[in-house]
Amino acid sequence: MIVFKKVRWKNFLSTGNQFTEIQLDRNPTTLIIGENGAGKSTILDALCFGLFGKPFRNINKAQLINTINLKDLIVEVEFKISSVEYLVTRGMKPNRFEIYQNGILMNQDANNRDYQKILEQQILKLNYRSFTQVVILGSSTFVPFMQLKARHRREVVEEILDIQIFSLMNLLLKQKLKDLVDEIRDMDYQVNMAMEKISMQENHIDDIKENRSNAIREKQIKYNNNKDLIHEKNTERVGYDEKNKNLFASIDDQIEAEKRSSKFKEIRATLIEKHKTHESMIDFFETNIECPTCQQHIDENYKNTMITNRKEEDSVVTRGLKELREAEGKNQERLNEIKKITDEIRDNQVTIAQLNSSVTELEKFNAVLLKEIKTQSNETISQDDIDKLKDMKKECKVAEEKRTELKKEKTYTEASKVMLQDTGIKTKIIKQYLPVMNKLINKYLNSMEFYVNFTLDENFNETIKSRYRDDFSYASFSEGEKMRIDLALLFTWRAIAKMKNSTNTNLLILDEIFDSSLDGAGTDEFLKILNTLTKENVFVISHKQDMLIDKFRSVLQFKKEKGFSHVA
């Protein structure tokens, strides 16, 4: 469990040259109040900048430095994991990034990027996205879980379930499998060459056993045959070289085709998004007679006009998608042709390499034959020839055993890779936890008097049904209802993280969730949930100090005086 203890900063945003320090583990509930611009939300930006090098809100890094002092920005975050104390110090003008473990500065030989990886992957074991899904719920530039893309939703859940290691292992296995295929190909070649050498050596010994004249004649024939074979292989190689030259010329549009494919994907994503937007607007005007936000009646003529316009625009988008698919299909056909040609080029290159190797070996062997022909008259079977054959057979046996082991390892690696794919063990683990997740989500929704049946599937798409079995989506709800869903998901991820002991922390910060999206009843029910949390330190940033101040154990008030923010 990560226990965040303290965050302090100076020359950060509107804070001056005196440190502002917040004790994070002192009180179970703390209310942060202050006027607009007083610096209440600075704690969010300070924490995110200190830990991940970027603020919570959409603020340019250069704008983080206090505009009056223009230097010496420092953010320090203290936390504890088990019995190990950590201090992260990050600054600008001058740049500074240090990690202290039990008061000792950790090795800084690595560059800042690697140093950040050590902090996220080895110490915190969570990244910026996980931190802002489990620790912080804000009303600024925060992107709720339900608004993340499917890929990013899965990444968040994998980190919470502590199964992202399987993705890393899968990447390593992919590379290992590629290396094994290359090694097996090399060993195949070595075995074949060793067998050729053995055959040649055995023939050589057999020749010596015969009378010298016959042996010389046979060697000469073999020499001539090898020359012919060398010529044939060289001619064949030239043919393959010429074929590859022509093949390369036929795929000179490969880069353009790949660029078109990428561009088509971007256009398709844009058109699909526009299609979804049109459908959403059409559905909104067809199903609503009043504005859900202001409760005003929607004029029928305006509705019809908007529906007609959106349908016309959607028709244009649909035609565009159809034309795009046709263009993609033609381009994909060309890409398939190019792949087929590149595969042929690669196969030709392998064949050329084999031909070159064979020619080299044949030339070497012919050189040996010439020497033997000259000395054959005085030559008998030598112990060197016998020993050479034994060595060749040993070499061949070792190569065959190595190839067998590599093939066996390849089989095991392929099986492991299948298990580590998204559809393998990770999906199995996610399926096991999905019922627990859905149960917790609905528990928290019911606690906030939001009575719907909310279900996430294994792809983290939502199904939402009312008590009357009406179907809804996250986007169809009001901001207050969305906030209830976001809160339910936040508490669920924290609960799951505690179960898995992955992204488990004492800290929870809620930024202005009471101020716009939660009504009085929702606020009361949410406060009940907060009071059930144990061993947690909850910070709530709000403007509603009059109605909330007596419901928190501690209150921090931010003020801005003479252009600088500070804690009153």
Q: Enumerate the strands of the largest sheet in spatial order, edge to edge or round the barrel.
A: 2-1-4-5-6-7
Oligomer: single chain
Segments where pLDDT lies below 50 for 5+ residues?
none
Report the portion of residues in β strands: 5-15%
Number of helices: 13
What order do the helices and strands follow?
EEEHEEEEHHEHHHHHHHEEEHEHEHEE
Tell me the major beta sheet.
6 strands, antiparallel
**Alpha carbon gyration radius:** 36 Å
Nearest-integer average pLDDT:
85
Distance between the termini: 31 Å
Shape: elongated
Helix content: 55-70%
Class by alpha and beta content: alpha/beta
Number of strands: 15
Overview of the structural elements:
The chain is of the alpha/beta class and 568 residues long. It has 13 helices and 15 strands. The chain has helices at 42-52, 112-124, 128-134, 150-160, 164-209, 212-250, 254-287, 300-375, 383-420, 422-447, 479-500, 520-532, 545-548, and strands spanning 2-10, 20-23, 29-34, 73-81, 84-92, 96-101, 104-105, 136-137, 452-456, 462-466, 471-472, 507-511, 537-541, 554-561, 564-567. The strands form 3 sheets. A 6-stranded antiparallel sheet has the order 2-1-4-5-6-7, with helices on one face. Strands 8-12-13-3-14-15 form a 6-stranded mixed sheet. α7 (254-287) packs antiparallel against α8. It is elongated. The protein starts with a strand and ends with a strand.
